[in-house]
Specification:
With 218 residues, the chain is α/β, with parallel strands linked by helices. It has 8 helices and 5 strands.
Length: 218
């Protein structure tokens, strides 16, 4: 049974990383049970497969243009799996001309003691992945934009990026000498925008939601 479960989740991971970003969150959750799967985890895996079968017409669509517009989304779910564990879930969605081209939903490596800390950790990963995407585009001949545009619904993360909270308690949580902190705070390179939670497309990668909310995001 464990071998069958691992085979199913392995197949789901293939779909989640290649096309179906809409199952990235449940696949990430299911992957956490691969060492010791449970009956409930198997039932959830079967349900995700049923969802894939019912939505086999899912596709990524966009218009071919000469312009190259990068817009990225970042979000986190602070300790959303309590009481099982206290680590938060990060979700990032990178778009090229409003078409999702790269995404990631994963459990953070350490416990964040506040929602702002969790959002900052997710934001740093979005900056790293966004830079890599734009460098890859530059190698293919696309112009590199002057700034990295990221949308987030976290006021605390935006304040941290703009150094407003430089002397707050977050200074004791993050080592401000770290290279990723300096990269995140380079306002000439990273530009954050506020977006409402219901319009944040990366919410799909951190939270389970009702069908009505899901349909508005997808």
């Amino acid at each position: 049974e464990r071998a069958r479960y691992n085979s199913i989740v392995g197949s789901l991971n293939y779909f989640a990383t290649s096309l179906r970003y809409d199952i990235a969150l449940p696949t990430s959750k299911l992957s956490q049970f691969m060492a010791s799967p449970t009956v409930g985890a198997m039932q959830c895996a079967v349900r995700v497969m049923q969802y894939l079968g019912a939505t086999s017409g899912f596709s990524l669509r966009g218009r071919v243009t000469e312009e190259c517009e990068y817009i990225h989304y970042s979000d986190s779910d602070h300790a959303g799996d309590k009481p099982y564990h206290t680590r938060s879930q990060s979700g990032i969605l990178l778009t090229l001309n409003k078409v999702p081209v790269q995404w990631k939903s994963n459990k953070q490596s350490c416990t964040a003691y506040s929602s702002t800390a969790a959002e900052v950790m997710a934001l740093s990963e979005c900056v790293r992945q966004g830079n890599f995407l734009q460098w890859a585009g530059k190698d293919m001949g696309y112009p590199e934009p002057p700034t990295l545009t990221i949308y987030t619904d976290s006021k605390g993360a935006r304040s941290f990026q703009s150094s407003i909270t430089l002397f707050s308690w977050l200074r004791g949580y993050f080592d401000l000498r770290e290279a990723w902190v300096k990269e995140l705070r380079d306002q000439g390179r990273v530009k954050l925008h506020k977006v409402e939670g219901k319009q944040n497309q990366s919410d799909l990668l951190t939270k389970l939601m009702r069908p009505s909310t899901y349909n508005n995001i997808i």
